[in-house]
Structure formats: C-alpha cells, structure tokens
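WARN no homologs supplied; continuing
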Amino acid sequence: MPRTSHSPRALLARALDPLSGFRACASRSGDLGRALGHMVLWRAPFWTLSTLIQLEGYRRLHHLLSSPMEPRFQGFVDSLGLTTVQLRALADFLPAPPAASVALPWIAAISPLAVLSLWMHHWAWDHLALWILRGVGPGKARASALAEAEALTVGVLVRPLTLLAEIPYLGWVFATLGLVGGIYAWALRGIALSAWHECPLWKGLAATILHLLLVGLFYGTMVAVAVLAVFAFVA
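OK structure emitted
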C-alpha cells in the first residue's frame, strides 16, 4: 500500500505547494492510524512548549496580583477602579501556578490527547460544514479525518510563528507573524478537504470559515443561555 511521507522535506514541500501536495497524498490509499501517529509526534512537543509558555504567563500574572505591582500595571488597575486589596483577594482565590519542573511531566503526558482532541474538533466541525456546503465526496468521514490529520501535520511548520506571539510581554511584537501563521495553518485544512473530497477549492476553504461561524454561534448560544439562567436564578 503506498504511504505518505512525513519527513521534514516532504512536509516542507507540501507546505510550499499545498494544492499539488495534498492532491498527491489524497490519490494514495492513506493509513489513518499512521497519519494520526505522525500528527501526534510532530505536534505534541509544540503543544507542550505552548502550554509551558502559557503557564509562565499565568505565573507572572499571579505574581503581579499578589505582590506590589509595577507602576504601569498599577495605573491600569486604577483606571479600572480596582484596589490592591481586591486584586490580592483575586490572587488568593486563583490557584497558585505549579513550578515548570513539576508541571512538565504531566503536560508532556497529556499532550498526545490534547493533539487528538484538536484533530477531532476540527474533523467534526469541518466535515459538518463541508456537508452543509454539499462538498462531501468519496470517502466521506474518513476522507475528512485524513485531510485534517495531514493538514495539522503540515501546519506544524508555521507553529513557531504562533508560539512567538504567545511569549509573555513580547507576544505583541510578533502578533502579525502569529496571525499570518495561524491563517495559513487554517487555510491548509480547507485545501486538504478539497483534495480528499475532490470538491472545488472554494468549498474546502468556505467550510473552514463556516466552521468558525458555527462554533461561534454554538458557544455563543451556550454562554447566552447560561447568563440568562444565572440572572433568572438570582432574580
């Protein structure tokens, strides 16, 4: 059975020419398990690093809330009408961040599940959106599963750009690079969907945009219902 290469050179070639690269992959009889395995191997380290960066950002925020604050941050707090006492109370309520050395083994252990969860989320919503647009073709759900796995694997090449945008205090400097990388990685999924389902490219790209709208509507509705339920209970 022909196999899709997941070497750095092959991934770079698909990243530079995703239209031809994904069509070539889709023309082969791909192994979903193998595709998922490579996806996890490539993305799990970046997920671990991203989580550690976010943990460091949370640690710094917790430190600012619970200790004498920098003048610039104090001015921002004063503009919100908050007091130091209120902020320290918030810091006491929030859980203290664990040390990176303690958190790292746990983060690394759950990183494969986190990557698979991301894949399942994109698979479900992108496939639903493509079905709504009547773009689902040969292979149906399995085709979408393979397309998502391959797109997420190739998308890892721009992950360093989004990681730069996550650095505490400095992330805003790289925000544009992170945005460009994120948009490109998102577009890769649409290109892959069109290749595996043999549908027009615009339908694959439109499916990822519709996915975004559907998720926003879904979670926005849940939040609105929750808020209304709280107000009704309080009243």
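The chain has a mean pLDDT of 87.
OK
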